[in-house]
Amino acid sequence: MNQLNFCVIKIGSNVLTTQEGKPDFERMKHLTSQVASLVRKGTKIVLVSSGAVAFGRQELNISDKINPVIRKQIWASMGQIELINTYKSLFQDHQLAISQILVTKEDFRDRKHFLNMKNCLLGLLDQNIIPIINENDTVAITELMFTDNDELASLTAAMVDADSLILLTNVDGIYTGPPADPTSELIQKVDAQSDNLASYISATKSSFGRGGMLTKLNMAKRSASLGIQVIIANGKKDNILDQIQNKQGSFTYFEPSKVKHGTKKWLAHGDQYYKGEVMINEGAKAALSSQKISSLLPIGVVLVNGEFEKGDILRIIDQEGQRLGLGRAEYSAKTIQEKIGQKNQKPIIHYNYLYIF
């Protein structure tokens, strides 16, 4: 396990709330103290924090007759103020400044917008300001929502080229069965050769968050494949961040692969943002799957679906419909349609903008 030099830390709803769903101020105080300690030691930190709805719920009691989406939007809108003010007060005790950034999935879909966010975050860190990111639940509904803040944290870690991602939840990590079962064992390390861990995990979601351990597993594996070390740990445990920094304690560690290029990090999370789809033949599939550097050429394309422009994300599938990867379009949909199957053409997707699953 490497040192935490540049770290994205996600704090889940179940960490920041009591069993009754109320804000856990003592836990927040303890965690901010640990974050401050890491910052003083030179670690750059971006926080991804849940908790707005829980804070809003204590501010206003809304009738169950109100549409549940609107009810959540109201709580998120009110609670975000209290959440960020609490963080501001707690970090001020450590002479640290914070900033607030609220995002939706749309903010990650466009490469230019993505880079603008990245530059903003890096600018804040250069000024020794801790960015605190949360999903903008007030405007994010259904198709625009992240799976949960684990996905947002994973996206953020890839965006800022962090070397570490810590997902704090209310259990020690991934177990070989239900965490409450005394026969279940904590899986301490996961690498590329590890068995499929999804079979160990139930689909149960957390009490106050949207996601569950399966989401954490998927996001952790994706981040690790991009060269980011990932730790899933229990944020309810005292001094957990100090223990991770000192390579002590109980948690699940995901060993990182070789670091990927920044553009490929962006593409790796584009499976829900793609604007079109290209079906390729067996020859193109073999070329893209080989160790040799290959771009996707028009001669390897069988079919194109969707309306898209140059620069949009495309999903690549084989003739059986299996997902192969993602890439940035070098042509519009109309132009690609005209070039399907032709030789001696420029790539539809250049290797530098290609990510194979």
Detailed description of the structure:
35% of the residues lie in helices and 19% in strands. It is an alpha/beta fold and 357 residues long. It has two domains: 6-262, Acetylglutamate kinase-like (Carbamate kinase); 274-356, PUA domain (Archaeosine Trna-guanine Transglycosylase, Chain: A, domain 4). A hairpin with a 5-residue loop joins strand 11 (313-317) and strand 12. 41% of the residues are buried. One of its GO terms (molecular function) is glutamate 5-kinase activity. This is Glutamate 5-kinase. Substrate binds at residues 50, 137, 149. It comes from Belliella filtrata.
Give a brief rundown of this model.
This protein has 357 residues and is α/β, with parallel strands linked by helices. It is built from twelve helices and 13 strands.
Task: Please work out how many helical segments DSSP would assign.
Answer: 12
Helix content: 25-40%
CATH class division of the largest domain: Alpha Beta
Beta content comes to 15-25%
CATH topology title of the largest domain: Carbamate kinase
Tell me the total number of β-strands.
13
Total separate domains = 2
Q: Uncertain regions: pLDDT < 50 for 5+ in a row?
A: 203-211
Mean pLDDT: 87
Describe the strand arrangement of the main beta sheet, using strand numbers.
3-4-2-1-5-7-8-6
Structural class: alpha/beta
CATH superfamily annotation of the largest domain? Acetylglutamate kinase-like
N-to-C order of helices and strands: EHHEHHEHHEHEEHEHEHEHEEEHE
Overall 3D shape: globular
The biggest beta sheet is recorded as:
8 strands, mixed
Pfam family, one: AA_kinase
Main location: cytoplasm
Binding site for substrate: 50, 137, 149
Domain PUA: 276-349
